[in-house]
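Try it yourself: sequence plus MRU, in.
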Amino acid sequence: MQVQGKPYRSLWLAANGRDVECIDQTRLPHNFVVAEISTAEDAMEAIRDMWVRGAPLIGAMAAYGVCLGLHESCTEEHLHQICEKLIACRPTAVNLQWAVDRMQRKLLSVETSQWLEVGYKEAANICDEDVEANESLGSHGAAVIQEIWEKKGKSEPVHILTHCNAGWLATVDWGTALAPVYKAQQLGIPVHVWVDETRPRNQGAHLTAWELCMAGIDHHLIVDNVGGHLMQHGKVDMCIVGTDRTAANGDVCNKIGTYLKALAAKDNNIPFYVALPGSTIDWQMQEGLSIPIEIRDEEEVLFVQGQFCDGRVDTICIAPEGTPAANYAFDVTPARLVTGLITERGICSASKEGLLGLYPEHLE
Ligand code: MRU
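Structure, out:
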């Protein structure tokens, strides 16, 4: 995607062919800063502290984190240690484990003398495949947007509500929930996006709004509790969200608050779609409620980051001193509330049968 007319991915290999560079998402929207990642520890910090975030992107960063770790030592023991530490950085998004396992399998299939070369190649493949999958799911999702637009008599834009940031910043490129929006824009379909601010870290306000500004897509930022009201008043045509882990039965685990949006959409008969590349499906996880939910530092709830009128960016406390906070980062939306799963292979029902229909290689 473009930033001020220049094409970017969220993460890329540095010019020296060894290090990794990424957009530091903790600095957006007020500052566009590129972070240098030179060691496996740097990659872990970037994932833990959310310089990079979003399920597919943390998988991609972890893949390069493995490569950076190999510069310290190419032994099986060291590889296992690095992989274990990377996986432990964030527990909910399955892409992290998926990417690290894939790297480990690939490396263990060749001689240690080839590890660096093969590792970097595999990490690049993970990135390129993510871009390809997201672009493809974007086209499938855009077809749904087009259908809704035609049903509305092409009279006015399609109003889409999204939660958190599932745009290109959450992936290597294109995004998941926003890929259909970008594709619809390319097709000339007018879209308008309702952007949930997504407390506590405000990925909607900081990242989705920034992406849509960059792309010139019509949008409004709303606080997290507005969605239900808008739905009751016919101001939302569809919801599209991402998922950090999709269970084999079609339950989806996404940013905290997604479940409430799905309930409101169901009550108002509004289609609720979830967009995902296949790497987000956990075939071993039989149902969503078994997915480990990340609980993050309470400071993220107690403090808010913003820009003062003089341009200074800082964090301020919004609660009385001594008030404890609980910071659950994800929730589970049961499959019965999901209209369809938009994948790179097409759209399916949120069910075991639906998923296996698109991914028959996982039939037992
Ligand atoms: O905590 P985050 O910002 O990593 O959470 C991200 C989300 O919840 C996204 O919706 C999810 O990763 C799917 S989008 C690619």
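One thing you can check immediately is this: The two ends are 39 Å apart (CA to CA).
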